[in-house]
Description:
Helices cover about 35% and strands about 20% of the residues. With about 600 residues, it is an alpha/beta fold. The protein folds into three domains: about 5-240, Glutamine Phosphoribosylpyrophosphate, subunit 1, domain 1, CATH 3.60.20.10; about 250-435, Rossmann fold (3-Layer(aba) Sandwich); about 445-605, Glucose-6-phosphate isomerase like protein, domain 1 (Rossmann fold, 3-Layer(aba) Sandwich).
Amino acid sequence: MCGIIGILGGKAVAPLLIDGLRRLEYRGYDSAGIATLSNGAIDRRRSEGKLANLADLVDRDPIEGTIGIGHTRWATHGRPSEANAHPHANERVAVVHNGIIENFQELRRELEAQGHVFETETDSEVIVHLISEQLNQQKTPQDAVAAALKRLEGAFALAILFAGRHDLMIGARRGSPLAVGFGSGEMYLGSDALALAPLTDRICYLEEGDWVVLDHGDAQVFDETDQPVAREVKQTALSGAMIGKGQYRHFMQKEIYEQPAVIGDTLHSLINPMSRTVELPDVPLDLGKVSRFTCCACGTAHYATAVAKYWFEQIARQPVEIDIASEFRYREAPMPEGGVGLFVSQSGETIDTLSALRYAKQQGQTILSIVNVPESAIARESDGVLPTLAGPEIGVASTKAFTTQLAVLACLAIAVGRARGTIDGEQEARLSQSLIEVPARVTEVLQSDAAIKAIAADLIYTRDVLYLGRGLLFPIALEGALKLKELSYIHAEGYAAGEMKHGPIALIDEDVPVIVCAPSGPLFEKTAGNVQEVRARGGAVILISDRAGIERIGEYARHCIEMPAIDPFVAPILYSIPVQLLAYHTAAQKGTDVDQPRNLAKSVTVE
Ligand code: G6P
């Protein structure tokens, strides 16, 4: 989603702004722009499409100044175009905005009636005119912003520049995150700490309703009632060096290959390898006495909770409900006494997940979250946080965040089982041991990369692909289909194998590949039956299974991907890898934009 950077500095600011926007590219965008003060006057460059277009424009038509704001826009109100790209500005004020102003039509009518002339179709432009209207009434910039903020309904993060004021930048947040960075004699604003990583490691996160006035040396934060407040300045561990592609062609490929390391890091933070027991930090409740876990998330993170439901039920006999956060937040679901709301999110900023969390809190639930960004809003609003140690994930399609979420959820299921007395020490040791071995098994699976690439070459001309799985592998079928469609734009559907006869079987012919995730285990024979049914209708099966499974039904498959033999408990983590690689190689060979697929955003901070 949209990204913001603001720099109040001492050197030429345009290249620094474009660099900052580059670090925000991973969030997804379709236009970009910057504004600076050049001899006190607001100057802008904006362009549709990729940042390279903006960089070219600035090369052809340089822009001066030492203070500036920049933005990557993911279109909501108004199509992606240069005119609708931020910053929005008139001769007095320039603004970049993330989020949605819900009452913009009403405000626009009112401002037009006062003589303001609008240039764009966006909701954001009203902010420029609201502030200018206050400045026209001789208010100071601070007072003008304070008054304008009170008129805005909806969600926003803002960075604001004022003509003639080289020493002043104002930021504000409600709903969308905004971080303030402290440099030496320079100050920064960023929609996340990654944007500011190479500039400073001293960051302060604004809280809900806060706004901030920056000058060259300091930041004064005010709360929503305009009272000055102190917000903690933290040292962040992010560094600019962490976000290169290294030897890989795409960030997604790099992130797939990082999985043995980051799953290992995450498991090491939760499992004592000597005693083979799970030791969870920061869980402020008795896990044996939870009436129900209600898990909410979006996209790939939702599929992690779908796997967790099987684990919690099978290992801990723990009642669990899962829901997509955007549905749950409006369902008015009654929540039980003694219940836990469990929220899973890579970014920790997904607006629907955050809103579902707030609803669960109002309903008296204890809030646990599994997040990859420890400073995020979801983490900050939780009673307990179980971090995934995946490091920054830049590819829009989630990979290492997903498998580390699974690693944390598996540990949590074991801890709940132990607390509820459904597993004994021996079973806990067996399950922990199978998790401890996952990073090594993932490394083995990655050795099939070239073979999977060759199979993907067969997928690039297909129109539809089906994914089938049962039990713990059903969510992996869903995740495989999501990955393929979002990256390669090939229509794909994931199905519980047992549901195939209830509809999808009608689609099967020789042009529809069926990818079957079927490790040996209790449900294998059932899925083997489905493979026969696909073959009988001429469908081409791509079988992902272990040696025993391939020996049993491999002859009916067009391709087989051989997986290590593993405890069925950890199969969802392992079987995520081949479906990621299939989607990656299909997209890379088709030539789509793997790291930033069209229309998608990394972090969905608007509804
Ligand atoms: C977007 C991303 C997905 C991600 C989902 C949830 O759709 O493209 O990769 O799974 O948001 O994001 P979160 O940050 O909450 O995990």
